[in-house]
Amino acid sequence: MPQLNPGPWFAVFLMSWIVFLLILTFKMSNFNNLNEPTSQNKDMKKPESWNWPWI
């Protein structure tokens, strides 16, 4: 049964994943975040406690 012999297809499988991962990391490293995070307001109010009417 030829499908049990990994010789013919394992090298192709391995090389295709290596190429895929190299391209993917190259694309991700060139990604620019268009929405830069803004600084949050330092003067934040203290949160109010919840009102539990059944207690």
List keywords for this structure.
mainly alpha; 42% helix; elongated
Characterise this structure.
Its main location: mitochondrion. Belongs to the ATPase protein 8 family. It is found in: Mitochondrion membrane. Pfam families: ATP-synt_8 (PF00895). It is a single-pass membrane protein. The chain is mainly α and 55 residues long. It has one helix spanning 7-29. The radius of gyration is 27 Å and the shape is elongated. It starts with 6 loop residues before the first helix and ends in a 26-residue tail after the last helix. The mean pLDDT is 77.
Structural class: mainly alpha
Average of per-residue pLDDT values: 77
Radius of gyration: 27 Å
Number of strands: 0
Q: How would you sum up the global shape?
A: elongated
Largest sheet: none
Q: Which sequence of SSEs, written as H and E, runs from N to C? A: H
Low-confidence runs: none
Between the first and last Cα atoms, what is the distance in angstroms? 73 Å
**Total helical segments:** 1
Beta-strand percent range = under 5%
Helix content: 40-55%
GO cellular component, one term: proton-transporting ATP synthase complex
Protein name: ATP synthase complex subunit 8
Organism: Hynobius maoershanensis
Family: Belongs to the ATPase protein 8 family.
